[in-house]
Write a structure and sequence with these properties.
heterodimer, A: Rossmann fold, six-stranded mixed sheet, five-stranded antiparallel sheet, 8 helices, 20 strands, about 25% helix, B: mainly alpha, about 0% strand, globular
Chain lengths: ~350, ~270
């Protein structure tokens, strides 16, 4: 049921503008891979090529080693969840989920399959409801059940959660992940929401200007971004200058890097220390200029005289009365262990082919 | 609800324009209904001439209509011809709209062609069709009238159904295609149910247009038989009898009944679609 998806050397121009540049992508069987990127990065185009709605100018798309380029979307044995659900509004929930079974002449008990799929998405007993009468979150579930009904070899999610409110979105992220794991279907998701990409995926593929910038597990992508663009794109980051002797300004923390590179430090990697007038290695003195209490954590902006931009520091919340106040003088600590060095340049010119398997 | 105190700020911005709008509305209503207000009294005259105010009241001209079978024959013929034409136009327009929606490239290129019959003078079309019949060695027939009327009704039906198609999320078609649906399955299980109100509207509009059309039957109807508007036209050019008004009165009555029925059906279709 689950199959690898491989895309090789994919190029596509639309209206004279090159959208995809020799794209290579290997999606392991049964994994959930997220294509992440700003709008216009080519992520949706890639999904449409894989689905068969667009045919590439050159390159190859294969499911489980079989070239599918000549097949129309309906013959590719896939399920797609669209951004606005694309539920058939005039049909009942049961008819929506049963639609691919009828269309593909699925062998087996259709009624039972529909019931099972609705139970999978926690809509058991909703068969006779009119699809258009459901809430957004419920329509999303119907769309998922419909996409999975005919046992697709590939599930495509096109910005599946962007139309939901924040709380529902987070709940659905966990649920989609869980259902995907239970069904075991290879899944490619497209999103511009970096927290969705980090929390749902086995692998994250960051795209920019029709190329793949970097690809890896969510943790790798967060901790070891390959470029300044990637560091900024996935979560908040402080980018600190490194002097010629390999010391991070103004901490003096030593790293094995030189000019032309930046130290990327995540806000939670700093430690907040009581203010001390003594200058020592690994410590910078500053003043808190903004405090954002976010529940479990506090986000501080700290003005440090030697830096143009304020440091962004995230501290764990440790009980009543522990939220710092604006105007406090503090010291910020940094150890070399928490530093990742990135190139100054915005985007590397050529993204190497990715081998994920 | 119409209490002025409950008006939203947006609604209240229109308050200043209310009086001119009402005057405009009344003027339009008078303009639209004046012909009927003249026709119906004129049909009730007991005199010999078409005149307003009528010369005495009687139903004699209505009796005359029912006494002469040619009027009923023409009415039945009109229904058959215009009904066939409306069905032909609507089916063609429906297939055209669903077909063009599938291809952005062809859709953009071919769409204007469906409006061409609108700019064609009807006399030219009628003459052209009769020439073609002649060339093919065929007699004038109601089939040719149906064809001509369907062609004239096509743009109207096309616009009505296209308007409905705009309301359908294109992702729905892509979803159906990705789920393995053939084109025919998508057309009959998704497009047709979602567009049924527009299709019904297209049917009514193209029928109304065809029912009113007199020129085609004048050129193309078989000798001795004709449709109602053409018969009226022929009678009118012959003499200005109150008979014309009484036939018109009956047609107005019939039209009102059909319009009411159409409204009921359309609401029933809409209710089930929700």
């Amino acid at each position: 049921m689950s199959q690898t998806v491989s895309v090789r050397n994919l190029s596509l121009a639309l209206g004279g503008k090159k959208i995809l540049h020799e794209l290579d992508l290997e999606v392991p069987a049964g994994s959930l891979v997220t294509l992440l990127g700003p709008s216009g990065s080519g992520k949706s185009t890639t999904l449409n090529v894989i689905a068969g709605f667009l045919s590439p100018d050159s390159g190859e798309v294969a499911f489980g080693g079989r070239d599918v380029k000549a097949l129309p979307p309906g013959a590719r044995n896939l399920g797609i969840v669209f951004q606005n659900y694309a539920i058939f509004p005039h049909m009942t929930v049961g008819a929506n989920v049963g639609f691919p079974l009828k269309a593909q002449h699925w062998r087996g008990d259709h009624k039972r399959r529909v019931r099972d799929m609705l139970e999978l998405v926690q809509l058991g007993g909703f068969e006779a409801r009119r699809a258009s009468s459901l809430s957004g979150g419920q329509q999303q579930r119907v769309a998922l059940a419909r996409a999975l009904a005919a046992e697709p070899q590939l599930l495509l999610l096109d910005e599946p959660l962007s139309a939901l409110d924040k709380q529902l979105r987070e709940a659905m992220q966990a649920e989609i992940k869980q259902i995907q794991r239970r069904v075991g279907v290879t899944t490619i998701s497209v999103t511009h929401d970096q927290s969705e990409a980090l929390s749902m995926s086995d692998l994250v593929v960051v795209m920019n200007e029709g190329r793949i910038d970097q690809c890896g597990t969510p943790e790798e992508m967060y901790c070891r971004p390959r470029s300044e663009f990637l560091a900024r794109f996935l979560g908040e980051v402080n980018l600190l200058p490194i002097d010629a002797t390999g010391h991070i300004e103004p901490f003096g923390t030593g790293v094995s890097a030189g000019g032309g590179q930046l130290a990327a430090v995540r806000p939670e990697s700093f430690s907040v220390l009581p203010w001390t007038p003594v200058r020592s290695s690994g410590i910078a003195q500053g003043r808190i200029v903004a405090v954002l209490f976010q529940g479990g954590t506090c986000r501080l902006e700290v003005a440090v005289p030697a830096l143009e931009e304020n440091l962004i520091v995230r501290t764990a919340y440790s009980g009543l009365g522990s939220v710092p106040t604006v105007g406090d003088d503090i010291a910020v600590g940094l150890t070399g262990h928490d530093v990742h060095v990135v190139a100054l340049s915005k985007v590397a010119d050529s993204a190497p082919a990715l081998q994920l398997t | 609800m119409s209490n002025e105190r409950t008006l939203t700020p947006f609604q209240s911005t229109f308050r200043g324009g209310r009086v001119p709008f009402m005057i405009l509305g009344v003027v339009f209503a008078v303009y639209l209904f004046a012909p009927m207000a003249v026709t119906i009294p004129a049909s009730l005259t007991s005199g010999e001439f078409l005149e307003v105010p009528p010369d005495g009241l009687s139903l004699r001209w209505y009796e005359e209509v029912f006494d002469d079978s040619k009027w009923l024959d023409a009415l039945v013929t009109s229904f058959q011809v215009s009904g066939s034409a409306a069905i032909l136009a609507t089916v063609t327009a429906f297939l055209a709209v669903t077909g063009l929606a599938r291809s952005r490239r062809w859709g953009g290129t071919l769409r204007p062609l469906f409006f061409l019959p609108m700019v064609l003078p009807i006399v030219v079309l009628a003459l052209g069709l009769s020439r073609v019949l002649l060339m093919l060695g065929m007699q004038t027939s109601f089939g040719a009238v149906v064809l001509g009327q369907a062609l004239l009704g096509l743009p109207i039906a096309f616009i009505a159904i296209s308007a409905g198609m705009v309301g359908i999320d294109p992702a729905i078609h892509r979803a159906a295609a990705s789920l393995g649906s053939t084109w025919w399955r998508t057309v009959f299980t998704i497009d047709l149910p979602l567009l049924k109100q527009s299709v019904f509207g297209a049917l009514i509009l193209s029928f109304a247009y065809a029912f009113d059309e007199a020129v085609l039957a004048l050129f193309l109807a078989p000798t001795g038989q004709t449709t109602l508007p053409t018969l009226l036209y022929q009678e009118a050019s012959f003499r200005a009898s109150p008979l014309l008004a009484s036939v018109s009165g009956l047609v107005i009555l019939l039209t009102c009944a059909i319009a009411a029925l159409a409204l009921v059906i359309n609401r029933a279709l809409g209710r089930r679609a929700q």
